[in-house]
Amino acid sequence: MSEFEHLIACPRCDALYRAARPKTGERAVCHRCHSVLIAPRVGASVRMVALSISVSILLIGALFLPFLHIERSGLGNSSSVFDVALIFAHGIGLPLVLAVASLIIVIPLLRALLVIYAVGPVVLNRNVRPHAARAFRWSETLRPWAMAEIFVLGCAIALVKIVDLATVDFGPALWMFSALVLINVFQDSFLCKWTVWSSLEQTT
Ligand SMILES: [Zn+2]
After folding, report:
1. Is the pLDDT score of 135 beyond 60?
2. Which residue did the predictor score with more confidence, 4 or 97?
3. How confident is the prediction for the chain on average, in pLDDT?
4. Hey, which of 66, 86, 91, 200 has its CA 20 to 30 A from 26?
5. pLDDT of residue 1
6. Three-state SS letters, the chain
7. How far is the CA of 170 from the centre of ligand 1 (A)?
8. pLDDT digits (tens, 9 = 90+) for 148-188
9. 101 Cα: distance to centroid of ligand 1 (angstroms)
10. pLDDT for 130 beyond 80
11. pLDDT-derived band of residue 52, with 50, 70 and 90 as boundaries?
């Protein structure tokens, strides 16, 4: 075991610490920026897989269920993200549709599937699949490119602007996107990636 394997770096401010397993009910927090470094081991992998399954279901629902219903002067229309993508998916709009779809649907879904692939067998007490560590690393590398929360924020700002012009009702997809944002915050702030890494290493 190399001398670096005992070290753990804060994911937010890069402060370096000597890793030690916290006692039951405790968690290790960065002294400088208060990010969680090591959370209780019990259920870290289970929670990570459960949240990734929830993310996959929510993403597919958010794509096809109605996102907004807009009504003005007795005329109304409701559409899903998929409907809107189809409307713009030709000519000059195609690259934009592909970019937005990748950032808000494809990459978050791919991240969730990579986590399920890598950590799922750990939860089921089976042998780790080949390249599990690499799959988990890819899901971490893709994290800055999963931008569902920026999409929700952009939609919220756009809605504030049109709310005076027409009656706007939120569809289930908007709430699903909002739930995704909360799950992402929880997954990034409160789940212990260190525990997942060490369980992937132990079972390889
Ligand atoms: Zn820190």
Report:
1. yes
2. 97
3. 84
4. 200
5. 52
6. CCHHHHEEECCCCCCEEECCCCCCCCCEECCCCCCEEECCCCCHHHHHHHHHHHHHHHHHHHHHCEEEEEEECCEEEEEEHHHHHHHHCCHHHHHHHHHHHHHHHHHHHHHHHHHHHHHHHHHCCCCCCCCHHHHHHHHHHCHHHCCHHHHHHHHHHHHHHHCCCCEEEECHHHHHHHHHHHHHHHHHHHCCHHHHHHHHHHHC
7. 38
8. 888 888 888 888 888 888 888 888 998 898 898 888 888 87
9. 33
10. yes
11. very high
**Centroid of ligand 1 to alpha carbon of 17 (angstroms):** 10
Distance (angstroms) between ligand 1 centre and the Cα of 37 equals 8
Residue 39 Cα to ligand 1 midpoint, Å, equals: 14
Q: What is the pTM (predicted TM-score) of this model?
A: 0.77
How many angstroms is it from 38 CA to the middle of ligand 1? 12
Residue tagged 């709430």 (tokens): 175
User: Residue ranges per domain, the chain?
Assistant: 1-40, 45-202
Q: What is the Å distance from ligand 1's center to 134 Cα?
A: 25
Residue 34: per-residue pLDDT: 85
CA gyration radius, the chain: 20
Q: How far is the CA of 188 from the centre of ligand 1 (A)?
A: 14
pLDDT band at 89; cut points 50, 70, 90: confident
* CATH hierarchy code of domain 45-202: 1.20.140
Give 35 Cα–ligand 1 centroid separation in angstroms.
Answer: 5
